[in-house]
Automatic annotation (TrEMBL):
Keyword Nuclease: yes
Protein name from the UniProt record: VRR-NUC domain-containing protein
Domain of life, per lineage: Bacteria
Keywords, sorted A to Z: Hydrolase, Nuclease
Nuclease is among the record's keywords: yes
Domain VRR-NUC span(s) in chain numbering: 8-109
C-alpha cells in the first residue's frame, strides 16, 4: 500500500480499482474496461472523438458481464466528495432503462463492495 499524504485523485482511485479487479478476477480481466471520455484535450482531438462516437456522460468503467438480470455493470468513479454532472445523470437514466446496473464509487472499498455484490 502506498503512504498517502494528499487525497487521491479520481484517476488514482480508478487505477487502484482496476488493478484490484484484475488480481481478484483475472479470468474476467478483459471484460472490465475504461471509457476514455474524460480529461483535457485540445479542440481538434475532442472533435475527432465526438466524430468517432464519444458520448458525454458515459460511465468511467463498464463490466461487460450480465448478472442478476442486468446486462452490465456501469461504474462512475468520483473523488470522495465528487458528484455526477447532469450529462452523467442523463446517461445513467438511459443505461438503467436498458437493464444495466449503474453505481457511483468514491473509493476502492466502495468499488470492491459493488463488484463483489454484482458478481456473487
Amino acid at each position: 500500500m502506498r503512504k498517502q499524504t494528499t487525497p487521491l485523485s479520481e484517476s488514482q482511485i480508478q487505477h487502484d480499482c482496476v488493478q484490484w479487479f484484475r488480481l481478484q478476477y483475472p479470468f474476467l480481466a478483459l471484460m472490465l474496461f475504461t471509457v476514455p471520455n474524460g480529461g483535457k484535450r485540445d479542440a481538434k482531438t475532442g472533435a475527432r472523438m465526438k466524430y468517432e462516437g464519444a458520448i458525454s456522460g458515459v460511465s468511467d468503467l463498464i463490466l461487460l458481464i450480465p448478472k442478476k438480470g442486468y446486462a452490465s455493470l456501469c461504474i462512475e468513479m468520483k473523488k470522495p466528495k465528487g458528484t455526477q454532472s447532469e450529462n452523467q445523470k442523463k446517461w445513467q437514466r438511459e443505461a438503467e432503462k436498458y437493464r444495466n446496473k449503474y453505481v457511483v464509487c468514491h473509493s476502492l472499498q466502495e468499488f470492491m463492495n459493488e463488484v463483489n455484490t454484482y458478481l456473487r
